[in-house]
Write a structure and sequence with these properties.
Number of strands of chain A: 4
Largest sheet of chain A: 4 strands, mixed
Distance between the termini of chain A: 52 Å
Oligomer: homodimer
Mean pLDDT of chain A: 86
Helix content of chain A: 40-55%
Strand order of the largest sheet of chain A: 2-1-3-4
Structural class of chain A: alpha+beta
Largest interface: A-B, 42 and 43 residues
Number of helices of chain A: 8
Order of helices and strands of chain A: EHEHEEHHHHHH
Chain lengths: 178, 178
């Protein structure tokens, strides 16, 4: 195996996953700031979708999409289990990964690429600058759900002071008063 | 097992998956139009997130999120394989599911809940009406990628007449001319 990696949160997920597994693979750094992932030879030989990271398998094929890569690593290197040792535990992990991904991570990513990251991304992928503020608000789902949790006897752990401070800060915003 | 199901594309994915597997489970219909999934007893006993479908396991726990449910069914009922019989084939399926889900299905869903579906959803989940048009445009990624494919010697299969017709129709829109 070989990992094509770069700056950014997606490659970092795979690097942390590999480290937690104790798997060491050759690394090839991709300069996404310079657009190396959006031109040849990367798009022909690694990933036609032009995203990073990508995992080269021993048969020469390439995987992209971090959840697919992590599932593959879990299947081929089951110990220690990070997704889960049983179908039931894996199902629970996948349920929560999807909730967090769709509710928080993806809206944050699209919003970044359409605002602060626009100059870098506008000629690379489909951006929607006029929706950036609204998409950033989607990250407020975390606020909504933790607020709901507090009402149904599932409050934020009192030891998690940063989360509590964040919650109070969001709760003080005009948009959350209505 | 028991499936809580309703109208809408997400429950349909699980129903089709079960049918393709040849698995028959008791069905409980949930009236999401009337908000049955957003109040007691559903949120306390089935899914605190209030989404449908949900799969009740034999130990009494409940799964939500369709990809987690389908992965669980694949693991517990491997034949016939729908995600894949090997780690490599499952990885490829998962990679494409994520590409299609993040690039097409989710933007369509959020856009629907923020426009035509707003009256039904505005008091249930976080909606962003001002971003609906932009999010609908994200479904145009399918157009962008198939157009890119045509340029790099990966054209749409000529047998797929409906896809070709759709592509030509999108290609004729003012927004795709620039």
């Amino acid at each position: 195996m070989k990992l094509y990696t770069s700056v950014g949160p997606n490659p970092n997920v795979v690097r942390v996953f590999l480290a937690e597994k104790g798997i060491s693979v050759p690394i090839q750094k991709v300069d996404i700031m310079a657009g190396e992932n959006r031109r040849e030879p990367y798009i022909s030989t690694v990933n036609p979708h032009g995203t990073c990271p990508a995992l080269e398998l021993d048969d020469g094929t390439h995987l992209s999409q971090i959840t697919a890569i992590c599932e593959y690593l879990e299947e081929t290197h089951p110990s220690p289990p990070l997704i889960g040792p049983t179908p039931e535990q894996r199902a629970e992990t996948r349920m929560w990964v999807r909730r967090i991904d769709l509710g928080i991570c993806e809206p944050m990513g699209v919003a970044f690429r359409s605002s602060e990251g626009l100059q870098m991304f506008k000629d690379r992928i489909f951006t929607i600058p006029e929706a950036a503020d609204a998409l950033k608000n989607l990250a407020l789902m975390l606020f909504s759900f933790t607020g709901f949790g507090a009402k149904i006897n599932q409050p934020i752990n009192a030891d998690h002071q940063h989360v509590l401070t964040w919650f109070d800060r969001v709760a003080a915003r005009p948009g959350t008063q209505k």
